[in-house]
Amino acid sequence: MGCSSSSTKINSAKNALKAALVIQNWYRGYRARLKARQHYALTIFQSIEYADEQGQMQLSNFFSFMLENYRKIQNDDPAIVTRLLETNLQDSQNKHAYMGLIEVPDSYDGPRLKFPLTFTDIDLLLKAFQQQQILHAYYVLEVLFEAKKVLKQMPNFTHIQTSPYKEITVCGDLHGKLEDLLLIFYKNGLPSVNNQYVFNGDFVDRGKNSTEILMILLVSFLVYPNELHLNRGNHEDFMMNLRYGFTREILQKYKLHGKKILKSVEEIYTWLPIGTIIDNEILIIHGGISESTDLNLLHQIQRNKMKSVLMPPVSNREFDSSLKNKASSSSATPGTSEDSSSEQLTKHEWEQIVDLLWSDPKGRKGCYPNTSRGGGCYFGPDITAKILNKNQLKMIIRSHECKPDGYDICHDGKVITIFSASNYYDEGSNRGAYIKLCYNTAPRFFQYQVTTTSCLNPLHQRVATMENRAIKILKERMISQKTDLINAFQLRDHSKTGKISLAQWAFSMESVLELKLPWRSLRSHLVKTDSDGNVDYMSSFQDVHIERPMEEATSPLVETLYRYRSDLNIIFNIMDSDHSGLISMEEFRTMWKLFTYHYNVQIDDSQFDEVINKMDVNKDGSIDFNEFFMAFHVVHKYDKNATDITLPN
DSSP 3-state assignment of 201? Predict the structure, then answer.
């Protein structure tokens, strides 16, 4: 009996072990499938983000086209050229002229800064922003003016040293996410003489607290100019701000003095250093490098001439002459040639800075155009080795790309990407991170994630929520090019059955949308297929459509306006010099004709005229273009719950 009992116990133990292994394998598979689904969602977010940036970069061609051909435009409408030229000029008015008429009322209960600033002001600002208080416009402008004075004295690359007892913390993109900055300071300490920081660009845009982040960083910089270092990112660009939210945030928070603040911010951008070099070994830049990156040249470039990546140098003598005339008649102080907007970077100099701000590393060797973003380049491990060896450097630290873990190491450990905005695409989408560097030791990485109520949900629920949002965004991109997609589908539907093969459908989606996505894997959430696996391509659009504000708006016109709404909004915002949100009907028509000509948009002008005439409700000859574009919005007919959508296992 003893042997029988012992045998039973052994068998029971074996069965329990087998069951545990089965459960363990199932759970590992389950986690792996969740991670794969999360990866698909992140791929959708990133592909669409980069496609939007590509569209933004392509606007530079449009502005070059406009300015190089300004004489014809000027004959049609001189005011348009004047506004474009004025946009490309900076107001260098003195502090008194800008702030003399602004008063801080006794009723203001927000933070009151005292200049020269001290650590107390940093603490005061942090506490106020935690309580969602708004810093008065007077103090915002004063911080911007004081910061500009200090920044103008700085070189293009800040050189700093570590020691065995002196660490430096490097932070990546923050993108207006105040909670992440506060969490970094909580975990790592506030800036001080013994606690140095490098913030590597992209402080603003996308998030709702870009103003607060910029103020905290600039106030900290003014208190500790030798301990807190700021690099320019690709979003420290007034043209980028028009698309990605910072301009709108400023004008909403500072309705009375927003325009003055925006002009001052634009100038601050141009004076931000373009890189930091630590111990003469580590190069910190926002984006990356190219095979032609010349650090010697970049040390000498007059960086303040880089107004915007979307305003490349224009080689037109008459344009240059007009620009000089505008500059000479402006309020710029005589003799300050460094602020003269009549001067431009050369094309080569401009490209050098664009590469620094926009490039991304890739595993493939060589240097080739960054087709995803439309600006900068992709650089391989051989290019990294070449540039580092040429300049006697050991490592590049850069930001610019969201990484699931907040950081990434590539090119045999010679390139590190650091990204400090957690939950960037959606809640739970990624961690944030920062790096600590100490003399002669390996970099140390610190990860974190701002926790919200939804972040406490089970992993499968968080992944499902993120998937749902990713699929919605992708469907909106599809509906914006519905006509082009249908034409591509029908071209392959030789029998006119309304169905094509999965391979044909995937090829059509890729060729029209130009998004590098796993279309075959995503097809179950985008279209219906029959028992033979053929795709009912019209089902791609069955649960989503663009709302038409009026019957006169034809499908191609509606799709075009929706697809290019961000680009057109930027153009019209430039023309709207007083930020009233209104633009004359004639200006609207003129800009539309130029835009459709340059982008080869095949829309009958009479259709567009009919629509904008209807939008001029008051018949006063002007149109609110913000309302105009809001009228064309996507409607999801069957908006599924977050838990209903799951990407393929």
Answer: coil
